[in-house]
Specification:
The structure holds 2 protein chains of 2 kinds.
Chain A lengths: L2 E3 L4 E5 L4 E3 L2 E3 L6 E7 L6 E7 L7 E2 L2 E6 L4 E6 L8 E10 L5 E5 L3 E6 L1
Parallel strand pairs in A: 2-12
Antiparallel strand pairs in A: 1-4, 3-9, 5-6, 5-10, 7-8, 8-9, 10-11, 10-12
Chain B lengths: L3 E4 L2 E4 L4 E8 L5 E7 L6 E7 L2 E5 L6 E7 L2 E7 L7 E8 L13 E2 L3 E5 L1
Parallel strand pairs in B: 2-11
Antiparallel strand pairs in B: 1-3, 3-8, 4-5, 4-9, 5-6, 7-8, 9-10, 9-11
The chains are: A mainly beta, B mainly beta.
Chain lengths: 117, 118
């Protein structure tokens, strides 16, 4: 089964501290893309960071970075210098190609991040 | 301006009603998607349209009927829904959906329509 597991339903972090959100996935594909999306209370899902599975180098976007362990099928998100605006639901996802030929995102259940002032 | 606009933001309907959700994107994308987001469950892909043609129907019940008149607009027509259909319905768009992974095919989401079925 193609699944994404986010084992932490909720996390909290102090402002300016660092937090790591975990994600593991199960796919039989060798080539795929991994994503972290953020959904603030406004409900709009926003792309945080993207990783290409064939690249060993971990992706970074400003304060956001990933620890991608392909063999372990692990894709954790590290948020450095946490800010109040980082409070949101965070969803891990990967792409696969469906039988219909469409790219499909498979999502985890999400981790709710609270940032404490 | 998110680029993907969904209306209405909130909708309450009875099981015998007929209503529609609307999605419009201003990004020049060619692919559009409907996702269902229920509490404590992963997002579920419902439908995919590529260049106005439906390319994916993820075993969605027929009480949900999508319509894509052009690449910029996507509708989800609702009729005789059940209370368990209450959820947040998210629309998304991307440049296009391809038969091979592009990585550039990043989804842009709307803010969703919160549906409550009584």
């Amino acid at each position: 089964a193609q699944t994404v597991t986010q084992s932490q339903p909720e996390m909290s972090v102090q402002e300016a501290e660092t937090v790591t959100l975990s994600c593991t996935y199960d796919t039989s594909e060798s080539d795929y893309y991994l994503f972290w999306y953020k959904q603030p209370p406004s409900r709009q899902m926003i792309l945080v960071i993207r990783q290409e599975a064939y690249k060993q180098q971990n992706a970074t976007e400003n304060r956001f970075s990933v620890n991608f362990q392909k063999a372990a099928k692990s894709f954790s998100l590290k948020i450095s210098d946490s800010q109040l605006g980082d409070a949101a639901m965070y969803f891990c996802a990967y792409t696969l190609i469906t039988q219909g030929g469409s790219e499909k995102l498979v999502f985890g259940k999400g981790t709710k991040l609270t940032v404490n002032p | 301006e998110t680029g993907v606009t969904q209306t209405p933001r909130h909708l309450v309907m009875g099981m015998t009603n007929k209503k529609s959700l609307k999605c419009e994107q201003h990004l020049g994308h060619n692919a559009m998607y409907w996702y269902k987001q229920s509490a404590k469950k992963p997002l579920e892909l419902m439908f995919v349209y590529n260049f106005k043609e439906q390319t994916e129907n993820n075993s969605v019940p027929s009480r949900f009927s999508p319509e894509c008149p052009n690449s910029s607009h996507l509708f989800l027509h609702l009729h005789t829904l059940q209370p368990e259909d209450s959820a947040l319905y998210l629309c998304a768009s991307s440049q296009e959906t391809l038969s091979s992974l592009s990585g550039a095919n990043v989804l842009t989401f709307g803010a969703g329509s919160r549906l409550t079925v009584l």
